[in-house]
Amino acid sequence: MKRITVLCLLIFQLGFGNDMEWSKTGHRTIGEVAQQFLTGRTKKALKKLLNGQSLALVSNYADEIKADRSFSKYGPWHYVNYPADKKYTEVAPSEEGDIIIGIEKCLEIVKDKNSKAEDKVFYLKMLVHLIGDLHQPMHVGRLEDKGGNDIQVQWFGKGTNLHRLWDSNMIDDYGMSYSELANNLPELTKGQIKNIQQGNIYDWVEESQEIANELYGSVQVGEKLGYAYGYKYWTTLEKQLQKGGLRLAKVLNELFS
């Protein structure tokens, strides 16, 4: 019985250790922010495809389907790991796919007038999630430590790792619902919003990697983290949630224009 338990734990770690995401609250926050910046045309298209469901509601779909092994091939779409001194376009893409390949595939299928309705819905839900993941910096981390999954630290006395710290620990311990987070993000001018929405997924992946490179230097293995770390980096996390929502809105508005 003990061997079976250990084997199950190993399978879980191998299967999911490198593709953890923003917590449910994080993804829903991004979806809620995006919802506020959609054009009327986009809202109409989404209402039809998603049967009235909000972006916040569908934002965790790509995580939920992991319970079904038939969707395992989409696991590598949640992240990309490449050397800190390289750009995404300077390395050979993974044969299994990555977050950029995944986003491009989603856009291709949703955009194609000949795609089946059920395929458009599936890849639209995936797209909402993947744009969110693109803004979790540790999803653009280093291959050798699985995007920070192998860097063990403590968060308020409990074991975690650098990846999980940014996925969920800080967000969940902040104690706000996704709607509270979305509605209490910094107010931005039209100019600031336009600036955030500039560029494309290739620009945004490099931005996330730049933040990830900083975060690697923010901890030491085994370090005990708590209020001081949260105070220092909450603004960065908050900005990434806001950027994710604004850029998701941009992507969807362009998709359905």
Automatic annotation (TrEMBL):
Nucleus in keyword set: no
Pfam families linked to this entry: S1-P1_nuclease
GO biological process, alphabetically ordered: DNA catabolic process
Keyword Nuclease applies: yes
Official protein name in the record: S1/P1 Nuclease
PANTHER family for the chain: ENDONUCLEASE 4 (PTHR33146)
UniProt entry keywords in alphabetical sequence: Disulfide bond, Endonuclease, Glycoprotein, Hydrolase, Metal-binding, Nuclease
Gene Ontology MF term list: endonuclease activity; hydrolase activity, acting on ester bonds; metal ion binding; nucleic acid binding
Transmembrane segments: none
